[in-house]
Amino acid sequence: MPTIPHWIDGKPYVGAEDVVVPVENPATGEVVGQVASATPAEVETAIASAAAAFEIWSEYSLAKRTAVMFRFRELLVQHTDELAEIVTREHGKVFSDAKGEISRGLEVVEFACSIPTLLKGEYSDQAATGIDVYSFRQPVGVVAGITPFNFPVMIPLWMSPVALATGNTFVLKPPTRDPGAAMFLAELWKEAGLPDGAFTVVHGNRDVIGRLLTHPDIAAVSFVGSTTTAKHIHAVASEHGKRVQALGAAKNHAVVLADADLEHAADNLVAAAYGAAGERCMALPVALVQDSIADELVARLTEKAARVKVAEGMTPDADMGAIISAQARDRIVSLITSAEREGARILVDGRGFAPEGYEKGYWVGPTLIDGVTPEMTINKEEVFGPTLEIIRIPDLATGIATIQANPYGNGAAIFTSSGEAARTFVRAQGTAGMIGVNVPIPVPVAWHSFGGWKESLVGESHIYGPEGVKFYTRAKVVTQRWPHRADNGPVSFHFSGDASK
What we know:
- By secondary structure, the chain is an alpha/beta fold.
- The protein has helices at residues 40-57, 62-78, 80-91, 95-112, 115-118, 154-165, 180-192, 206-214, 227-239, 262-274, 291-306, 326-341, 377-380, 396-405, 419-427, 465-471; strands spanning 3-4, 6-8, 11-13, 20-25, 30-36, 122-128, 131-139, 142-146, 169-173, 199-201, 218-224, 243-247, 253-256, 286-290, 345-348, 367-370, 387-393, 408-409, 411-415, 434-437, 453-454, 457-458, 473-481.
- It is built from 16 helices and 23 strands.
- A hairpin with a 2-residue loop joins strand 2 and strand 3 (11-13).
- Helix 2 (62-78) runs antiparallel to helix 4 (95-112).
């Protein structure tokens, strides 16, 4: 059984293998490898290597760092198919979707390639007589990234390029369910010219995470995952003096008004609900549909959901693949059953589905549920599966109020042809941090920043983009005087910003 190693000091590191976790192919249920949890000593070795590399990498010129970023970007493009195959094998998502997540991560790499511009400071000449003031940003040190299973390439690429480009070194704790992509990224960083130790990978359990949160040499922690875990990570890491990005769960909604293009809305709702088998925090599992067009839209959705091609990830033209694990599948099925039990109508039922020849895999087919109410269990929880709930509403105000009442606030969308309705929706308070207008999954491009509101974000730090640069650096302001040595003049006992002196 192949063991997926750690990556420490620029090379694979097998380690003790005292605790080993199997890695499965969700489409078949077969074990395709195993990954060892790092021992406490191995975590210390990894962090020490990253700390030593920081002394080297942080002194690289911006030109040299940029060259590494550009080379990494080239390698990522060249090896996209190989990396996507690893993701499909270990995660279960279809090959095209795996390539799609790489392309979204690539955007952040390209953003990081512009780091010389992003790190430009400010300069005030002659702030006072003979005194200049300027500011610049410096890296914080060794930073850690703790990433989820659903995007084993994209989420590490939302963190590491910005962290590295700004001069930090990066320790990645990837998910144990699909860890292979992290190792492939490490090899690409090495080939791109990153110094040994600047990008480190340690696999493991809660003990490994716990040490990353408390180790004195870790300056900042980035996390994407459940809200419960995000709150824990934010509390513990903050208590130990670290900066924290902590992004949590979501329950995204789309309002569909009577004046919307229903064919456009139906196509986008199906793709947003069932793409990646719904295993993404920006999935769109709830449609708030105006009563007057609800029957027509539901009819279109029923037809389109039934046509979604669910198959093993490497199958040509497959739309949706397997669920990550048996436990995840069973939880999704139980939530669908709870909706049925609480009075909703299952129009398209994905329970018990499996493609021919893959019956031992972990599958849930596209599921369409009508007659859902905000009080139902399925609407209160993040399903993280291929479900689309229909909640019928009389008007836009009710739709906005429903979104405001939900504890999560990652994303929300509206489908309409009315500019007035769209503007009202966009400006509504207490809905979500990322809004789509006739766009179902409003993930910002790399030169903006990603982050939600309410229970979807713990703390204030968003990820990548300008806020990512700010998170991975700290500002320094310098006030300087170069007096004429022949006559230095009197020393002021007051602040030197008094321009009259």
